[in-house]
Amino acid sequence: MVTRLQGLAAMAGLVAVPALLLCVIGCTGSPGQPSPAGSPGAVARSAAASAPVASVCTRAEVKAAISGFFDAWNHQDAAALGRQFTVDGVLDMATKHQGRHEWASIGGLGARRAIAAFAGRQWRLGEKLSYRGMTIVLGGGADGDGGYANVRASFADDTVQPMEEAKFVYDCAGHAFAHVVIISAKAASPA
Length: 191
Hints:
By secondary structure, the chain is α+β, with helices and mostly antiparallel strands. It has helices at about 5-15, 40-50, 60-75, 80-85, 110-125; strands spanning about 85-95, 105, 130-135, 145-155, 160-170, 175-185, 190. It has one domain (about 55-190): Nuclear Transport Factor 2, Chain: A, CATH 3.10.450. Helices cover about 30% and strands about 30% of the residues. The chain is globular, with a radius of gyration of 18 Å.
């Protein structure tokens, strides 16, 4: 005979969702080569290993979070931007002069404050982010929960920077991003 407590324990084991597999979301080294220590893929694997069990997300929640990220960025709201991330979240983002496959990586403990400081430096350049198209991915599988968007940065000096990839990994339990990747296709140039 199975007691109610044993049944609940068994159900909990079946319902547990593995930690987000951030390294699969696109932050790895060159094909066939491992990611170097300290790279976004290595940071993501470390975060995934220590991530809590996630709850179930809805498409609307993830879409609202991604839109909230762009709103906070474009309104230069450091507090709102910081709240978009988990306390140990990671932002991998290209700066104005970084080319293809170059980016700054900000995250770890105290990430919210560090991400807000990074954003402040970008905002002083007049950076605004625009996006079109958004694909939401749910299920906690290999891609985790989150989404993708086609992103472009524009600056006060009328230069633009197309982004090669923009990926958002959402921590459903924390209602915040565990990892955001916005990597440029090239350095900013005149429109």
